[in-house]
């Protein structure tokens, strides 16, 4: 990460020279959070029924995340062009609940920690984000003790990634597509990552404080031979954009597990969740 901080200083120094136009800690972020990205920096709670090999698993999954993205400084160069530099972070905690032993148990299986730095440029209907982030996943001790897991290979999973993602707003539709490269992983992994997505919002009242939502997020990683992961969602968004709206969504996921120390294992789930970006 030290190379990133050198790059950050290289970018910040000339920008500080035009600090007269800088807006520090602005109220809004230029980047629209992709709610259906399982490791987006946001807060959510979701409960899932899980299938493995098309068979209903003997456990369910609950995921809680506390995350945020926050613009630190922004510049507005014209009505159509703006730029901001921010910080984002999140903790994703996965709970397994099961009766496989004849006794109902709830175990924390894994916790993932993410910290990142996004650079976001908007030009008319386009928004482009360049980001670098670090993610590490750690197996929970109670899960290890209950399942007598001693394999060190499962104890953590960490890597860093740099990615570029573009979004385009067309009426009620926002399209996403991106490319990323992972590096500095704690184990060998192939680097390329491709992403895409769509958000659709339809106002349900005149105030536009309630909106129908439908969308998807997809990624394809070289590490998993480009086997796609797809997350579909439908539901409602409550609150205007300046009120930190929440989404209540039913979701369907199929593909390699997007987080945890078991990252990459094939899985399906049907779930319901509540999503919000608190900042």
Concise synopsis of the structure shown:
This protein is mainly β.
Topology:
Elements: H1 2-16, E1 22-24, E2 43-52, E3 55-76, E4 81-98, E5 105-123, E6 126-139, H2 141-146, E7 156-170, E8 173-183, E9 192-203, E10 210-221, E11 228-238, E12 246-256, E13 266-276
Antiparallel strand pairs: 1-3, 2-3, 2-13, 3-4, 4-5, 5-6, 6-7, 7-8, 8-9, 9-10, 10-11, 11-12, 12-13
Features:
279 residues, mainly beta, Outer membrane phospholipase (ompla), Chain C, 12-stranded antiparallel barrel, 13 strands, 8% helix, 61% strand, globular
Calculate Rg over CA atoms: 20 Å
Name of the CATH superfamily: Phospholipase A1
Give the SSE order as H and E letters.
Answer: HEEEEEEHEEEEEEE
Shape: globular
> How would you sum up the major sheet?
12 strands, antiparallel, barrel
Our measurement of the CA-to-CA distance between the termini, rounded to an integer number of angstroms, reads: 25 Å
How are the strands of the biggest sheet laid out side by side?
A: 2-3-4-5-6-7-8-9-10-11-12-13
- CATH topology-level name: Outer membrane phospholipase (ompla), Chain C
CATH class placement: Mainly Beta
Question: Which stretches are poorly predicted, pLDDT < 50 over at least 5 residues?
Answer: none
Count of DSSP strands? 13
Alpha-beta content class: mainly beta
CATH architecture grouping:
Beta Barrel
- Strand portion, in percent? over 45%
